[in-house]
Amino acid sequence: MSTADFARYTKVLHTLTADFARAVPDDNWNFSPDPPARSGRVPAPHRLGDGFAPFSKQLRHVICVRGVYNAALKSKKVDWTRKHEQYRGPLTREALLGGLDEKQRDLLGLLETVDTDSPIDWDGTPFTFTQFTWEFVQHEAIHQGQWSIYASLAGFDTPLSWRTSWGL
């Protein structure tokens, strides 16, 4: 995948994520369809907790992961130990949208100079730039799928961009 194609696609992802964040009603900002301890399930090994995080924390997670991805484009190594350094702001809509926009601006700037021929060390496995882009897109798409369920269970509509693009 070319950097121009990836930049164009991340703009679509970014718009969909930001549109959803703007569409979540205030009283559902911290909604979770499966809060911790409700399901009675034992968490999977290596999972940080049980249940699903509320939307506000999932959006923070997306921002932090985007920061890890951006740093990996610079350093050529994914470093998950620094994930929580990528966003330290509050869980408010305005602050999180600002953090999301900042990571997108950073990514677009990086894509202007990134060396797409150098592999990226992903936990000991060399990833090509194209493989890296697939991981980036897949991660955000998984969360967008979860959020469509959040909206349905919480009883609010997804944004127009989602209904137009995906019929969700």
The coarse silhouette is globular
Gyration radius, to the nearest Å?
16 Å
As a percent range, the share of helical residues equals 55-70%
Alpha carbon gap, first and last residue? 27 Å
Quick one: CATH superfamily?
dinb family like domain
CATH top level class name: Mainly Alpha
CATH architecture heading: Up-down Bundle
The counted number of beta strands is 2
The topology string of helices and strands comes to: HHHEEHH
Give the number of helices. 5
Could you tell me the strand content as a percent range?
under 5%
The name of the CATH topology is Four Helix Bundle (Hemerythrin (Met), subunit A)
Strand order of the largest sheet: 1-2
Uncertain runs with pLDDT below 50, 5 residues or more?
A: none
Q: Largest sheet, described in full?
A: 2 strands, antiparallel
Q: Would you mind describing this structure in some detail?
A:
There is one protein chain. With 168 residues, the protein is mostly helical. The protein has a single domain (3-30, 52-166), classed as dinb family like domain (Four Helix Bundle (Hemerythrin (Met), subunit A)), CATH 1.20.120.450. The chain has helices at residues 3-23, 55-75, 93-111, 129-154, 160-166; strands spanning 120-122, 125-127. A two-stranded antiparallel sheet has the order 1-2. α1 (3-23) packs parallel to α4 and α2 packs antiparallel against α4. The longest helix has 26 residues, at 129-154. The protein starts with a helix and ends with a helix.
